[in-house]
Amino acid sequence: MNKHTKNIIFLLLGSGISLSPWCSTPVLCLVLVALTFVAFLIYGVVEIRFNYFLSSQHTVLSDKLVLSFDDGPNHSTQTILNILKKHDVGAVFFLIGKNIDNEQELLEELREGGFVLGNHSYSHPSNFALMTTKSIITELQITEQLLGKSSIRLFRPPFGITSPQINRAVKHLDMKSIGWSLRSLDTLVNNKEQLVTKILKKSNNGDIILLHDEGKCTASCLEEIIIKLKSSGKSFASNEDIVRLLHG
């Protein structure tokens, strides 16, 4: 029994006690406790930062910010690369294997630029967390082969969804899961000012910031985000810093 399961048991016991004045019958009380358990279980699945099924790193021990980009390489990756190089900012890219198949030149440019490359599964299926451990291992192994010598065995689960099967696969392959402390929701936000403002207001030293190559306005406002964060006194981790902070 891991520590998170123990914590949930204590929470359930506590909730049972706290709900007891509203429980007219033992059956009702059991139903309420069961619903509480299901709620915590769902939260453990969808909230990677809870570290319930899968232990992940969500921040870095540094006064710098780490930029991370998911779902590449794709048509927006080149623009992002150009901006990062221009401002001498490092980043970790969690790549989808099937996208690598179609963007070998971009993969090579990422390598040559010294950017940190991570594994984001081969096909990014919507049911990734429900797949068997064996199938998840296969997804990760194929992508590791595509990353080749550039891989430092970092992994981020698709959608940030976790499960016991994912945990077993990550352990089997001796990989390290990386989450985030600041989720930009750039796949939903289509307003440049809103996205820039959110990141500026919520960024703290040591944050791992989650972005996407194909975010609705990520590529078009990334330069503004970098400039304004630097102007506010923030600094960004270099590629060398990221390797040390995430892999060291």
Can you describe this structure?
The protein is α/β, with parallel strands linked by helices and 248 residues long. It folds into 2 domains: 44 residues; 192 residues, TIM Barrel. Helices cover 49% and strands 13% of the residues. It has 10 helices and 8 strands. It has an 8-stranded parallel β-sheet with strand order 1-6-5-4-3-2-8-7. Strand 5, helix 7 and strand 6 form a beta-alpha-beta unit. Helix 1 packs antiparallel against helix 2, helix 3 packs parallel to helix 9 and helix 8 packs parallel to helix 9. The chain is globular, with a radius of gyration of 20 Å.
Secondary structure elements and pairings:
Layout lengths: L2 H17 L6 H21 L9 E2 L8 E7 L4 H10 L5 E4 L1 H6 L1 H9 L3 E4 L13 H15 L3 E5 L8 H9 L3 E3 L3 E2 L8 H11 L5 E5 L5 H14 L7 H9 L1
Parallel strand pairs: 1-6, 2-3, 2-8, 3-4, 4-5, 5-6, 7-8
Helix pairs in contact: 1-2, 3-9, 6-7, 8-9
What's the quick description here?
With 248 residues, this protein is an alpha/beta fold. It contains 10 helices and 8 strands. 49% of the residues lie in helices and 13% in strands.
Helix-strand topology string: HHEEHEHHEHEHEEHEHH
Report low-confidence residues grouped into runs of 5 or more: none
Give the strand order of the largest sheet, numbering strands 1, 2, ... along the chain: 1-6-5-4-3-2-8-7
The class by helix and strand makeup works out as alpha/beta
- Under the CATH scheme, which class of the largest domain? Alpha Beta
Query: How many domains, as an integer?
Result: 2
- What percentage of residues falls in helices of 4 or more residues? 40-55%
Dominant shape: globular
